[in-house]
Amino acid sequence: MGRMAGGGWSSLSVDLLELISGRAASGADRLHIHQVCTHWRASTSPPRRLPGVVAGRPGSGLYPIRDYSLRLPVGGAPRADVGALPAGLPYCCGTSQGWLALVDNYRYPTRLVLWEPFSNTEISLPCLENITLIVLSGDPLTSSSEWVAIAGQIQGGTRQKALFWRPGDATWTVLNGRGADEIDTVVFHEGKAYYIDVMGTIAGSHPSPAEVYKPVWAPNQRFKLHERVMNLGDHSLFVGRGDTFALSAKEFPAIKRNCIYYADKLRHKRYWISVFHLDSDVVEEIPYPEELKEDRTNWMPHAWFCPRTP
């Protein structure tokens, strides 16, 4: 075979390289294409990493999980594509924006960090006593100084107060000192932070295991449920404690479209995660991994972890 004119494979056009990469059968093939040479790396995007499950020893009530591990959704095996877990930080109190929030002691901490598992980057945060969770408004590596962290702190019994921290701040600032019931998650909308507590349930009879509604944000900084969403198209929702996000089945072929994936913090070993199919009202249960049943750690799924885009 003769040599290709004009510089060979390294001179293929950007459009052609994108077409080739887009038709690759797997993430591994797309990664190999991306790594061929400098020109191919500049012309193609690396494959997006699949979401994982953060599992660990169940905490008590509001408290973070201990002895956490990043694991695969099916089979429960540890992820092999992440760095070694930071030493001396046994508690995980957040899985936001592709970062884990880790602390050495949730009651009286001396070290509180954000850790990005793939680059092994750490960002130190001011310590906060009785911390329960941390949620980020953006990716610290791409949002510069525009991101903020929201934390939940125990305020007696099952009450919590919310605090925020911005890059450059010396300490945390109280966001809502009145307190709330157990804060389940925090969302950001048009520059404002909204949190949902465990009392934010909707009473009534619901024949389906789950329902999806489009929220409407009211002027009083609260949201109301609007129309029910029956079809998510090619997307699926990932729900657990902490971050909730949507992913496209077109970008992640291993994901089933129009579904809700649950990471349930259960105290029995009946199943690992569950998948609710919106189109059929059927709940699919992913069995608890056999290899973990005898593990003394008593691994329990706690939250979803969506790796940041490189």
Written description of the protein model:
- This protein is mainly beta and 310 residues long.
- Helices cover 7% and strands 37% of the residues.
- It has three helices and 20 strands.
- The strands form five sheets. The protein has a seven-stranded antiparallel sheet, with no helix packed on it. A five-stranded mixed sheet has the order 16-15-17-18-19, with no helix packed on it.
- The longest helix is centred in the first third of the chain and has 9 residues, at 14-22.
- It is globular.
- 30% of the residues are buried.
- InterPro entries: KIB1-4_b-propeller.
- Pfam families: Beta-prop_KIB1-4.
Number of helices: 3
Mean pLDDT across all amino acids: 78
In angstroms, what separates the terminal alpha carbons? 37 Å
Strand residue percentage:
35-45%
Along the chain, the helix and strand elements come as HHHEEEEEEEEEEEEEEEEEEEE
Supply the helix-strand structural class: mainly beta
Biggest sheet, spatial arrangement of strands: 6-5-4-3-2-1-20
Low-confidence stretches: 1-5, 200-207
How would you summarize this macromolecular structure in one to three sentences?
By secondary structure, the chain is mainly beta. 7% of the residues lie in helices and 37% in strands. The strands form 5 sheets. Strands 6-5-4-3-2-1-20 form a 7-stranded antiparallel beta sheet, with no helix packed on it. The protein has a 5-stranded mixed beta sheet with strand order 16-15-17-18-19, with no helix packed on it. Strands 7-8-9-10 form a 4-stranded antiparallel beta sheet, with no helix packed on it.
